[in-house]
Amino acid sequence: MKTAVFGAGITGLNAALKLNKNGIEPVIVEEKPYVGGIAATVDIDGRKFDHGPHAYHSNIPEILSEIKKLGGDELMTRGKEVRIKFKGKYYRYPLEATDVIFKLNPLLALSAVCGYLLVNIKNIFVTPKIESAEDWIISKFGHTLYSIYFGPYTQKVWGVPPSQLSHLFARHRIPHNSLTEVLKKSFLKGARKLTGKEHKYSPLVIEFFYPKHGAGVIPERMFQSIDANSRTFYPNSKLVKLNIEKNRITSAIIDTSEGQKELKADNYISTIPINDLVRTISPEPDSEILSAVKDIRYRSIAVVCLVIDKPKVFDFDAEWIYFTNKIFNRLSDIKNCGAVEAVENGRTGLMAEITCNYGDDIWNADKNVLVDRVAEELRQEKFIEKKDVIASGILKVRNGYPIYNLNYEKNIGKILKYIKTIENLITTGRQGMFKYVDMDVAMEMGALAAEHIAQKKEKNKLPDIPFEEMLYA
């Protein structure tokens, strides 16, 4: 048997690896010249950089075991320390009551705490009407915290007001516990914060693993674990057409460095963006599906990578920091994350993540312009002097984050229902299922797709991924 796998990110690679272990030949088609997708590590001027920090952790024992086995002696263990900056000061994230009370302007702190307490007490007696991300955030954190941090940051990252984003985005990505749990955890440290009542979709991470030479070590070793004699790999290649007859794919046309090729397989797994996948199908779907596809959008990312001629940049122990008032959303130190061999001793590797839309001014900006802008903002933050930047580069991701607009559930539901009618096609992964998942869940999605094929299950028996309610499937 042979299965085509489109996309060599974490999901596609784990699917290929599991297929291979079940005696099925994977044919992997990847648009980039390397594997790993957004989890790949890239060489910039002799140093290693990631597409932003990609820490490994999991509450799934099998996945965690696999990560440890693949990483081996490359894995560094890190206690997670994250900061956010607003109103001129740095705060621990997730927010802690004591931190907010003692650092924020006293009047603003009183307003934030009172607002938080009031909405959470109100929720006990009255079920709030939740339609958007704005509604959900205010119902959990109050108006003050929404206005000074959550609202501005959400709009900055996704490029649209939270009032135009689905409440499911906020529910699934913003950690929130009961009032009692939040107050309790403000006075606990480390693993003592884990009470067993963590956020179901975005669990509190106390400790994570990171390869010494960058996050890409894991996908590279996944690829190397696939028997080279029973796999086919097409790098620098792209799916351009899926030929469908009687609800089955008969062949795929791919663009390769050697021209177009026709690819025939028994089954097909797609981890590429679901809107791109649908556009390759021939004959094309009906107008209702094509209309739904037009409303499915992803946020792009430009990561400005800087080599700094200083052994340390942050004045405190943190892997990354979130900002609301910079061109970048998140700034991370790759060595602090655990990639201690990514940059030579005495120097620091910084990754500044900027979200944008494909083709806009940020995406098309000259590299030197973006580097200079980021360096200037780091100077203003008193992290560096501009002369400290000795090397730089930019990594771009066209389809970074699924944009959960208010209509996405309805539209993605139509698309998934249609894809389920194609008997030998499975779409999965962050891009393929339009789900903003972490790497451990992405690995699980790939494993489940491979298991489904290996066990020759019926298409309608493909299991849902238990990280969020499948309200639209």
Plain-language structure description:
The chain has 473 residues and is an alpha/beta fold. It folds into three domains: 2-37 and 62-71 and 214-296 and 405-461, 3-Layer(bba) Sandwich (FAD/NAD(P)-binding domain); 82-204, no CATH class; 298-402, Polyamine Oxidase, Chain A, domain 2 (Alpha-Beta Complex). 35% of the residues lie in helices and 24% in strands. It is built from 16 helices and 20 strands. It has a seven-stranded mixed beta sheet with strand order 7-6-16-17-18-15-19, sandwiched between helices. Strands 9-2-1-13-20 form a five-stranded parallel beta sheet. It has a four-stranded mixed beta sheet with strand order 12-11-10-14. A hairpin with a 2-residue loop joins strand 10 (238-245) and strand 11. Helix 3 packs antiparallel against helix 4 (106-125). The longest helix is centred in the N-terminal third of the chain and has 26 residues, at 133-158. It is globular. It starts with a strand and ends in a 19-residue tail after the last helix. The relative contact order is 0.19.
Helicity range of the residues?
Answer: 25-40%
Q: Write down the oligomeric state.
A: single chain
CATH superfamily of the largest domain: FAD/NAD(P)-binding domain
Low-pLDDT ranges: 191-202, 465-473
Number of helices: 16
Form type:
globular
How much β-strand is present in the residues? 15-25%
* CATH class (first level) name of the largest domain: Alpha Beta
Q: Architecture of the largest domain, CATH level 2?
A: 3-Layer(bba) Sandwich
CATH topology of the largest domain: FAD/NAD(P)-binding domain
Strands in their spatial order, largest beta sheet = 7-6-16-17-18-15-19
Strand count, sense and barrel status of the largest sheet are: 7 strands, mixed
Number of domains: 3
Number of strands: 20
**What is the end-to-end distance?**
28 Å
Mean pLDDT: 91
Instruction: Give the C-alpha Rg.
Output: 23 Å
